[in-house]
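Batch job 17 of 40 flagged for manual review because the log was empty.
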Amino acid sequence: MELIVVGAGPAYTNREGASGSAYLVRLGDSSLLLDLGQGSFPRLFRHAEPSTLIGVVVSHLHPDHFVDLVPLRHYLRYEFDPPRRVTVYGPTGLADRLDGLHAVPGFTAEALDTVDVGVGRRTIGPFELESALVLHTNESYAYRLAPAASADGPALVYSGDCGRAEDLEALLRPGDALLAEASFGPGPVVPGAQHLDGPAIGRLAARCGVGRVLLTHIQMGFDPDATVRSVHEAGYEGSVEMVWPGSRATLA
């Protein structure tokens, strides 16, 4: 199983070339996308033909995590004859949110099949997806993605946006790779922001026996190297790196 970072940016940034959250996971010939934030759809083409995705899994309904479903919908609808379709798993109301952007009921359903992901486990192609609610919006999810053939082995846990590190413990198993938003760098998190920083991630990773930590979604003004150090300083002794568009990691 391989992770390819398509986009890793937060809601806004001054980092040139940044784009919203989008993480492609490959297993054999199958590709699944975690989130599809602003500006990441064009980048997807260098790694996968978008119409062949076995699914897009959306963590929550903030635009930096889902708004490029709009160009994906257009591409599927107008680039092919007959049009192609992709299934999107995410929070309740995802289709309504996209329809509302264009004030066109049924806009989404012309090319995207939306499924309320809910809490629990489901099989998507060769993957097993496990979802858990986390503190952020009124319906935000973190995910554990593993090969269905060895779902209890090391896997990838993706935090989405998360305001309480403890919420990720339900998904983490020893040896898992943790792809965690570190919006507030080495900290501290602004009160009420409902995001994570390096120290919170470090304490969580140490408690849960995480195999490696991949940091993402860092806001402008925070130093990436200091953020990596803050994870170690919080007690985690394993591998920590900041990921950017184009970063790759071999997982389970």
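Reviewer: the log was empty due to a logging misconfiguration, but the result itself is present. The chain has a mean pLDDT of 97. Unflagging and moving on to job 18.
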